[in-house]
Amino acid sequence: MNEKNASYGLLSQTSDIGETRNARLQRHLHPFVGFQWLKAGWNDLAHRPISSLTYGAGIYALSITAIVILVLYGHDYILFPALAGFMIIAPLLAIGLYEKSRCRKHGEDIGLRRMLLVRPAAGPQVFFTGLLLSLLVLLWMRSAVLIYALFFGVRPFPGLDEIAGFLITQPVGWIILGVGTAVGGLFASFGFAVSAFSIPMLLDRKVDALTAMGTSMALVWNNLVPMIVWGGIILALFILCAATGLIGLIVIFPWLGHATWHAYTAVAETAS
């Protein structure tokens, strides 16, 4: 079960649970190596920045459009978990940014058109991974609805203004926040583990979706401390985006996208 697939140097499709504790997958990285990835990502962003910033502006426009649709159709009760779930599918949306960083590493400059019309090495496996991640987000949002029903029963959602004040000022609201944070943290941790390296891997290598996601989990587990710090950096920057009304996505999303490619090359690319 410890067979190594020479095509991408990671886990084989027949890997078992024991391989998740594998010294071959441990990179012995500095806990704060994520800041080096941010620096490298910024260099990619600064190189012909118009394409990356336009990409970020597109993500911002899609995000605002999704929020408006949720509010107009009376689904604002899932707005918070939907925003949080965005972090799960963000690696899929950033695939064009990975392509720019990958090409730049090989001395090739590409424009926005090439970033939007990416041809992953794994082909349609990327879309299958995106479907699985989307299902995880939907499950997360459904759990948020169940938590609301657990505390409020079948009463209609009172609106964002009222519920926000209740959560902050009332003891029951604090409990709801605690339960929601705990449940959301489980979804976020699992989503981060399966998507941290799987999408860049599918862009870069011919590998199936489940193997890529399983390998991503194994790599995160075997490099836990730097990956926890990296996850914290991503969360902090996302909170900063939310604090700016998501306008920060225009810069922060491409920055993190490019940085994620460098995280992939540092952790997932192995020597033979």
3D structure, described in words:
It is a single chain. The protein is mainly α. The chain has helices spanning 34-46, 49-72, 79-93, 95-105, 112-116, 125-152, 160-169, 171-195, 198-204, 209-222, 224-243, 249-267. It starts with 33 loop residues before the first helix and ends in a 5-residue tail after the last helix.
Which key terms come to mind for this protein?
272 residues; mainly alpha; 12 helices
Helix-strand layout with pairing:
Elements: H1 34-46, H2 49-72, H3 79-93, H4 95-105, H5 112-116, H6 125-152, H7 160-169, H8 171-195, H9 198-204, H10 209-222, H11 224-243, H12 249-267
Mean of all residue-level pLDDT scores: 87
Largest sheet: none
Question: How many beta strands in the DSSP annotation?
Answer: 0
Distance between the termini: 18 Å
Work out the count of structural domains.
1
Number of helices: 12
Uncertain runs: 1-8
Helix content: over 70%
- Radius of gyration from CA coordinates: 19 Å
> What's the helix-strand series?
HHHHHHHHHHHH
Q: Categorize the overall geometry.
A: globular
Structural class: mainly alpha
Q: Name the beta content range.
A: under 5%
